Amino acid sequence: MNAELIATAASATLTGGTPFPQIVGMLIEAGVEFYHVDYIALRKSFYGSAGAVVCTAIPYENLPPVAADFDAAALRANILDSQQKNQHYRDFTIRAMQAGVQGYFAFLRGQRVTYLGRQGDQHTEWFPGAKPQD
Question: What is the CA radius of gyration of the chain?
């Protein structure tokens, strides 16, 4: 995997302004198969198909604690605002944590993101334009 390109994509996500589809393209080009965002540890782990792992920090300060209860409706509204209104990733992060998201896995080849709550709740969101598989 190309750790430098992964770091560039991770930084572009944190600073905002780069659309999600472009970030996904950069990560695929870097050899990333999927990544995990951990809001408890404030880090992202990027995984390649051959077992390589690259980790980056989420250095945002003054984030709220992850809510104990998972609010799928609030999460879906948050995702929609990111897709339609180009919400900044920091705002997405805050709202996700307030909705009880402790982390998520973004599966690039599978074109979906699975969000996880602290009690095992989950919600899977397909990439825009992706077709859910049976």
Answer: 14
Listed in order, strand segments (DSSP E) in the chain are: 32-38, 43-48, 53-57, 101-107, 112-117, 122-126
Place of tokens 């992964």: 6
Q: Give the Cβ contact number of residue 84 at 10 Å.
A: 9
Tell me the pLDDT tens digit for each residue of 110-127.
999 999 999 999 999 998
In this structure, what DSSP letter does residue 55 have?
Answer: E
* Amino acid making up residue 29: E
CA triplet 91, 92, 97: central angle to 5 degrees? Answer: 100
Per residue in 60-85, pLDDT tens? 999 999 999 999 999 999 999 988 88
